[in-house]
Amino acid sequence: MHFATLNLCNLGADAAAWRLAHFGRLIAQTLAAPALLALQELKSEAEPAADGTVPATASAAALIEAILAAGGPHYVYREIAPLADADGGQAGFNIRLGALHDPQQLEAVERMPGGALDAAGVRRGADGHAQLTRSPGRIAPLDPAFAGCAERHWRPSRKALALEYRCPDGRPLLLVNCHLKSMRAEHRRAEDYAKKQRHAQAAVIHAFCASVLALDPQARLIVAGDFNDVPGSKTLDLLKGERLANLIEDLPRHLRHTHRHGHHAQTLDHVLVSPALRAARAEVLHVHTTAPAPQPSDHDPVRVELRDVQPLPR
Predict the structure, then answer these.
(1) In terms of CATH, what superfamily is 2-305?
(2) Residue 135 bridge partners (DSSP)
(3) Which of 163, 157, 287, 132 has its CA nearest to residue 228?
(4) Torsion over CA of 42, 298, 260 and 87, rounded to 10 degrees?
(5) Nearest C-alpha neighbor of 135 from the set 125, 120, 146, 118
(6) In 3-state terms, what secondary structure has residue 142?
């Protein structure tokens, strides 16, 4: 089974046709239609719903149509819609985390889906495996690391998204999709505030993952996305802890970069896995950072072969 993570760089239903067509071909052909795809920076400019949230239904539908047009499967999109202007990112865009899965390869588990401010927890299922109390759900959305804290100069940021799926062998597959606080800052002091906020976010996410593995040491758990920090940083060390492995670190250094800032190549997108998935292998597809302007995204996708998980037969 294959998994991928991709930062779409503020992609919406109003995106230029060439961008949507590019992402359709990328997912359907270049990434070979992974069973599960973690997305960052899907946007919505729609008016808030009655509950104050801004779903990205139209943006996801446009992307799914582009994948179908490129010969890919009919993916299903899942998200927790954020409250309007509450999760950071470019003003008015309401970017969020979401996921696509191919129902012909993987089954989604829907269990008490949470709202924008509802936290997902972990419990032991009847089969003995760890499962989410909410799927999809958000991880500690009210924690200052994500909600913001004026005293620490922390701003509201994207909330980590937790989702549960069922593998063909009946076992759960848990995904934590992350987009941590941006490295960009107006001045050096603000950069330091952002770094400390990323550290706090990493600690919260790791605690959640540790609770999963405490209940079920053999849990199939993926933690992926745009972490806005590099291998060896305190952010990544806090996220990994003692149990998770960063598949990016298995790659030669010259093949790791997923982002380019000016002429400086950086590795900001990562895929961490639990011990049960340690046989997995990752590759970075340098389709954006090496492309001439205009680039569809400023991040490269990461594709992972989950060697211990077999998809449903197509």
Answers:
(1) Endonuclease/exonuclease/phosphatase (3.60.10.10)
(2) 111
(3) 157
(4) -30
(5) 120
(6) coil
Tokens found for residue 157: 């940021």
Amino acid letter, residue 275: P
Q: How many CB atoms lie within 10 A of CB 264?
A: 8
State the first-to-last Cα distance of the chain, in angstroms, to the nearest integer: 12
Query: Rg of the chain's alpha carbons, rounded to an integer?
Result: 18
Three-state DSSP class for residue 275: helix
CB 71 within 8 A of CB 33: no
Give me 114's structure tokens: 């949470």
And the tokens for 268?
A: 């900001």
Q: How many CA atoms lie within 13 A of 234 on its CB side?
A: 10
Residue ranges in the chain whose pLDDT is less than 50: none
Q: Tens of pLDDT along 246-289?
A: 999 999 999 999 998 777 899 999 999 999 999 999 999 999 99
Q: Taking a C-beta distance cutoff of 8 angstroms, is the pair 152, 196 a contact?
A: yes
Which residue, among 7, 2, 3, 17, has the nearest Cα to 178 in the 3D structure? 7
Residue 125 CA to residue 128 CA, distance in Å, equals 5
